[in-house]
Design goal:
The complex is a heterodimer of chains A (284) and B (331). Chain A is of the alpha/beta class. Chain A is built from 9 helices and 8 strands. With 331 residues, chain B is mainly beta. Classes of the chains: A alpha/beta (284), B mainly beta (331).
Chain lengths: 284, 331
């Protein structure tokens, strides 16, 4: 799981590549620059900025901080539906269902991983699933199961600004200090989408779409989203396993309630569509 | 001036003569426990395993370390005002003999953990909300360096020769290596998910890094800073936080916070030898200089567990302040 990319290694590698390859134009990337991560984002820059945009922004700022340590760069590239500029590493979608479907199709055709960070539609995980589409946002089925498990009438959420445990307080504080707004579910999923892509590129030592996809689909691949358990993509529908929260009567209930003992993947798979029930037909 | 010193010396002698148990306490040592919620430090007499003092420190107390000469205990406090250094953000110096606060050093925003160089002159602390590590001189509190490390820096360890300081960063899953001669970050490594604490072996050849969400212990070469091995703890469900190495270098003890256990690992074969059940949410862990006792600060049960290292069993449980975080031992 752990790997070693020192700045020294990166610079040495970069120097070798620079000597061997023609200079790459600023802002573009190719096989020659493994850690130039360019993420295509639709509907970027709403005015005023929403949680989605803020989450993406914090994700990029934190990845940029990490790039100071490991070298490389990350940038968000505004895209229009279907018209992708060249040299993208991945695409991130917003909450609009129709746009998600269109973007996922276009990303698939371009061989790019598509991270759905906002739409909870079950259809995107079911009949409409794709090998190249990864769902960071929880599904409607997961939210339903969380409400049922919490056994209360309340709102089910991917994140809550009052969360404290597992380093959630430090993330909530960082977000609040940066934007003077509490971190919402949509901000968290957008932030995590960028974090997942950046970490994948660091660990895979590549920002190439095929390498990222390969890393995202490995059984050993997992991520930390400040929820106290490792988060990983289900192989049968590419849904990110994660604990959820149900907000009711000024309480926030975590589901599952105790992930400290049991195998956390099995426990998390109680939320959402199981392998035996999926209508997604991607051969993993 | 000299008159005052003489008089104070007499006072010390009188106190020592009049309190025989205090003498035995000095022989067996003291444990200083930082309490995050009650914002104080509990002092435990290890001869009797009883609490002998509680010292308010005026901030959320987390990282705690004894100076190499055992005369002072330092504790990191923070005031929880994010991204900004406030009055509660400090390294507080406690005089062991008098149990009084004798210094309060600025060390940047939100200091969490720190390491002390073997000569006792420098402290390197992680600034959790600042993405930096700060170095100060313990003799006068002067600022030496602020270095950019990863996001949400946490654990700090210093090599036995004082040459390297390593800092873990929880969000960026990284370990930064600081050359203490130049006060520069010379290397950054990716480690497993949510690295919490780091410790050097007594001979300085290896560093052990816990990863709470990864459920692993990563072994890093202490000189070349290459990753040697990643050990899965309790099949990845261990939730490791604090870590110590026995003084003979043969055992590694890992506090598994949420599992409420200590994992015992053979430092040569990297095999997990056993698990010791301790109190709720042990984070901080310390080992006696003779290697015979291990102490954990149990944040959820507000206790310290005393473990006999030959029996691998808890032999005493001591109530301390609210939400204990770390333990430092003084002879």
């Amino acid at each position: 799981m752990s790997s070693h990319i020192s700045r020294r290694d990166f610079l040495a590698r970069a120097a070798t590549i620079m000597a061997a390859m023609p200079r790459v134009a600023p802002g573009s990337h190719g096989a020659s620059d493994p850690l130039s991560l360019r993420i295509g984002v639709a509907n970027l820059g709403s005015s005023p900025p929403d949680g989605h945009d803020m989450g993406l922004t914090l994700g990029v700022e934190e990845a940029t901080h990490a790039a100071e340590m490991f070298g490389g760069s990350i940038e968000l590239v505004p895209i229009a539906d279907k018209n992708f500029p060249g040299a993208l590493s991945a695409v991130v979608g917003d909450s609009d269902y129709a746009r998600c479907v269109a973007l996922a199709r276009a990303a698939d055709a371009a061989g790019l991983p598509f991270l759905n960070v906002a739409s909870s539609a079950d259809a995107l995980r079911g009949a409409g699933c794709r090998r190249t589409m990864f769902h960071v946002a929880p599904s409607d089925a997961m939210y339903r199961d969380a409400r049922s498990a919490a056994n209360v009438e309340g709102q089910s959420l991917a994140w809550h600004p009052s969360l404290v445990r597992f380093g959630a307080d430090t993330l909530n504080k960082r977000f609040l200090a940066r934007f003077n707004r509490p971190m919402t579910s949509e901000a968290w999923t957008a932030w995590l989408g960028v974090k997942i892509l950046w970490e994948s590129s660091l660990r895979a030592r590549s920002a190439e779409p095929a390498q990222l996809m390969d890393y995202l689909t490995r059984d050993t691949t997992q991520f930390d989203g400040h929820k106290g358990v490792p988060l990983s993509f289900r192989p049968w529908d590419r849904q990110l396993r994660q604990p959820l929260y149900v907000s009711a009567d000024s309480r926030v209930i975590e589901v599952p309630s105790d992930t400290s003992r049991e195998g956390s993947r099995d426990l998390l798979d109680r939320l959402g569509v199981r392998k035996s029930d999926t209508s997604c037909r991607i051969a993993s | 001036m000299s008159d005052r010193i003489v008089r104070r010396g007499w006072l010390h002698l009188l106190v020592a003569l009049s309190t025989a148990p205090a003498l035995s306490a000095q022989r067996s040592g003291l444990a200083f426990v930082s309490n995050e919620l009650s914002q104080d430090v509990t002092v435990i007499d290890l001869a009797s395993n009883t609490v002998v003092a509680a010292i308010p420190v005026g901030g959320r107390a987390r990282g705690i370390q004894a100076a190499p000469d055992g005369r002072r205990v330092y504790v990191a406090t923070s005031d929880d005002k994010p991204q900004r250094e406030g009055a509660g953000d400090a390294i507080v110096a406690i005089d062991v003999a008098s149990r009084k606060i004798v210094g309060r050093f600025r060390i940047g925003s939100d200091p969490e953990q720190f390491g002390i160089t073997p000569d006792g002159t420098r402290i390197y602390a992680s600034n959790e909300d600042g993405g930096t590590a700060t170095a100060i001189d313990t003799r006068n509190g002067s600022h030496l360096a602020t270095l950019v490390v990863g996001i949400e820096p946490e654990g700090v360890a210093i090599s036995p020769d004082g040459r390297w300081a390593v800092v873990t960063s929880e969000t960026s899953n990284s370990l930064s290596v600081i050359d203490t001669r130049a006060n520069k970050v010379v290397d950054n490594l990716l480690v497993d998910l949510r690295p919490r604490a780091a410790v050097f072996t007594p001979d300085g050849t290896r560093v052990f890094v816990t990863a709470e969400i990864g459920g692993t212990l990563t072994v890093i070469d202490g000189r070349t800073h290459q990753t040697l091995k990643t050990i899965s703890l309790e099949r990845g469900e261990g939730k490791p936080v604090g870590v110590v190495v026995s003084p003979d270098g043969k055992r590694v003890y890992v506090a598994n916070g949420r599992a409420g256990t200590i994992s015992v690992i053979d430092a040569a074969s990297y095999q997990e030898l056993g698990t010791i059940i301790v109190g709720g949410r042990p984070w901080g862990i310390a080992i006696a200089r003779d290697g015979r006792r291990i102490y954990t600060a149990n944040g959820l049960s507000n206790t310290v567990s005393v473990v006999d290292a030959s029996l691998n069993k808890v032999i005493a449980t001591i109530k301390c302040g609210q939400r204990p975080w770390g333990v430092a031992l003084v002879r």
